[in-house]
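F.,

This is the one I mentioned.
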């Protein structure tokens, strides 16, 4: 018996939206079938909290709008949210024991904007605890599993989001990217995901990890579906001190990304058989080193050749400080995490130990019990590098390296290329528990994504191949753009997906 929900019969959000507006299917029917599928595929552990009545209430509201002829592009579309976006009704745990029973009195801006656009939420998605991890193995509620191989990780920290999209449980999902946490799971699960320019999407209501790095972004099967979510959530928010009112002269508001996408597509159409004529693709030599799996290298090379057949020109470039992104990131991010997570002290909200002596003992015990090993590890590292006597030696130096990394990217865009392409990860998804004895091994796997996050640039992952293993696992291609070029990136990705079918391939039900 099939457990695939009704929305999987449609190739895109656009097609499903048209069917909803024409009355061929209702939002409530879509919601009910998706809820059934989530239950049937609960073994993936993609969802942390589902509330059928909350979902059905949103679906009924969407149907009311559709019945009045007022439905928009997302009205009735089933999505879900990574469990670091606070939500009314659904619990917000950040996949941590520390927040196991927390329910927010307000919605995150991203959640609110998508609800206003008519999207129907199916619940909250699994992730690494406080978004700290690369495999979703750090969740206090157990790892999400890769739909292509249940013994493999789905990537992290947005592993539940990528797994839910790949398994067909949702049309799209929200995620967050601090050092690659949208792009990496998208690559390992064979879906598409984009991290926009830092500051273009509000962080208000997002459980903070690294405040100068965290950025929300959607995951979906292909680039055009990403556009449908990214455009409405890209907007200035005065409640977020890091939100940008302007994006290179254009107001940061809904419509900006779509207008840029439409303009890029129109320009491509003028190229005829060579729609990407004139596009310069920068290929960093540092992305193709001894640590890169031959299978990943071959898939990326094949994707680059496809782009060349569409008229693009390959340009060899250098990002000389690529390797320095790992030590720089793993000083800056833990330092910011140490500061952000100091609010979880057992006093106001969150986990409180049952037995303690004084206030200091209560705080110490509550944090030791509430946080998992990876979170504690990063808090300790972050606290150390912020200590008097070490701040200048570590944190300040890391920030200087961060500026140099950003300059490398800017020089490449200014002098050599329009977009940068390369691998997302050095290898395909590892087995669950594979690096259990070496907790920092996963840090090295972020080498191709961290520099982008440190620079605050937009970047995305799209499927470009599979491994040759007994259970073939997906491989992703990374596209990196200049600041505020999200629409252009999506159009370039869309052109590739018109010429290939990697994004259309779906895993068998586990």
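My design for it:
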């Amino acid at each position: 018996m099939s457990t695939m929900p009704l929305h999987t019969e449609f190739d895109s959000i656009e097609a499903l939206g048209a069917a909803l507006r024409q009355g061929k299917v209702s939002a409530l029917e879509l919601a009910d079938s998706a809820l059934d599928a989530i239950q049937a595929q609960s073994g993936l552990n993609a969802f942390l909290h589902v509330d059928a009545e909350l979902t059905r209430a949103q679906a009924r509201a969407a149907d009311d709008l559709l019945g009045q002829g007022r439905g928009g592009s997302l009205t009735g579309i089933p999505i879900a949210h990574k469990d670091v976006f606070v939500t009314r009704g659904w619990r917000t745990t950040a996949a941590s024991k520390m927040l196991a029973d927390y329910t927010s009195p307000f919605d995150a801006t991203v959640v609110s904007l998508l609800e206003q656009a008519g999207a129907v939420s199916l619940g909250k998605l699994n992730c690494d605890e406080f978004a700290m991890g690369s495999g979703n193995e750090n969740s206090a509620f157990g790892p999400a599993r890769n739909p292509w191989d249940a013994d493999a990780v789905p990537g992290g920290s947005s592993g539940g989001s990528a797994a839910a999209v790949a398994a067909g449980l949702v049309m799209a999902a929200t995620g967050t990217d601090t050092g690659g946490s949208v792009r990496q799971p998208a690559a390992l699960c064979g879906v598409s995901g984009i991290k926009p320019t830092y500051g273009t999407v509000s962080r208000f209501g997002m459980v903070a990890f690294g405040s100068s790095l965290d950025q929300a972004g959607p995951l979906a099967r292909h680039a055009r579906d990403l556009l449908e979510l990214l455009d409405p959530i890209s907007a200035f928010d005065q409640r977020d001190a890091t939100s940008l009112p302007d994006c290179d002269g254009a107001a940061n508001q809904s419509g900006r990304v779509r207008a840029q996408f439409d303009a890029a597509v129109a320009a491509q159409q003028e190229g005829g058989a060579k729609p990407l004529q004139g596009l310069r693709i920068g290929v960093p030599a540092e992305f193709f080193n001894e640590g890169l799996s031959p299978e990943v290298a071959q898939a990326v090379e094949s994707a680059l050749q496809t782009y060349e057949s569409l008229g693009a020109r390959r340009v060899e470039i250098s990002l000389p400080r690529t390797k320095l992104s790992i030590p720089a990131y793993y000083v800056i991010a833990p330092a910011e995490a140490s500061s952000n997570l100091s609010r979880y002290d057992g006093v106001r909200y969150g986990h409180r130990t049952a037995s303690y002596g004084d206030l200091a003992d209560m705080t110490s015990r509550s944090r030791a019990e509430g946080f998992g090993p990876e979170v504690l590890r990063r808090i300790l590292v972050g606290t150390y590098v912020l200590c008097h006597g070490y701040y200048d030696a570590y944190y300040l130096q890391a920030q200087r390296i961060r500026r140099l990394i950003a300059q490398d990217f800017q020089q490449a865009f200014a002098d050599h290329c329009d977009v940068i392409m390369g691998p997302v990860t050095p290898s395909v998804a590892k087995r669950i528990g594979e690096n259990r004895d070496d907790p920092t091994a996963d840090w090295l796997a972020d080498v191709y994504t961290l520099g982008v996050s440190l620079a605050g640039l937009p970047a995305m992952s799209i499927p470009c191949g599979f491994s040759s293993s007994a259970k073939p696992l997906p491989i992703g291609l990374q596209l990196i753009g200049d600041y505020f070029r999200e629409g252009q990136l999506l159009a370039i990705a869309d052109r590739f997906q018109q010429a290939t079918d990697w994004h259309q391939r779906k895993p068998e039900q586990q």
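The chain has a mean pLDDT of 96.

Talk soon.
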